[in-house]
Amino acid sequence: MKKIMVVGIGNLIMQDDGAGVHVIKCLSEMDIPAEVELIDGGTYSYDLVDFFCQGDIIIVIDAMQAGGEPGTIYRAPLEQLGLQFDSAMTSVHDLGFVQAARHVNMLGHYPQILVYGIEPENLGLGLELSPEIAGKVPKMAELIKDDIDRLLEML
Fold it and tell me: Which of 27, 31, 64, 79 might form a disulfide with 117, Cβ 3.0–4.6 angstroms?
C-alpha cells in the first residue's frame, strides 16, 4: 500500500506562519486512519527532504504568500502550481517545500505532492494565529481529511 504523509510546515512563534503546524494539531484530534502519518514539519526545512523521501503521497500544508486576501486557501498538486524553484510564492522558510521536492526528485524519488496553502495576515512575532487564519484551520483540516479519505479509497 502507498504511504500517505501529511506535513504541516511553519514557525509557531511567527503568528500565521505556524498555520501548517496548527492544521496538523487539528487533524491529530480527528479520526485520521492509522496508516496516514501526520508530521509537524516545523521549520526544519532540510528534514523535509527526508520526510518527502518516505512517502508516496504527500500533503503539504503551509502559509503561502500568493497575493490573495488573508485566509484564502489554496489547493493544488505541486506540478500544477507552476512554481519555479526560486519563485516568490513558496514557503517563507530557508528551504521551501518546492525546493525540498526538487531535491527528492534528484534523489530518484517522485512522490505525488498535494499542496494546501493559506494566505497569512500577520507574520510578526507572536504565538497566536490572527483571528482570520485561526478561523480557517478547522476548515482546512476538514478539506484535507476529505482528500485523505478519497485517496485511501483509490489505493
Answer: 64
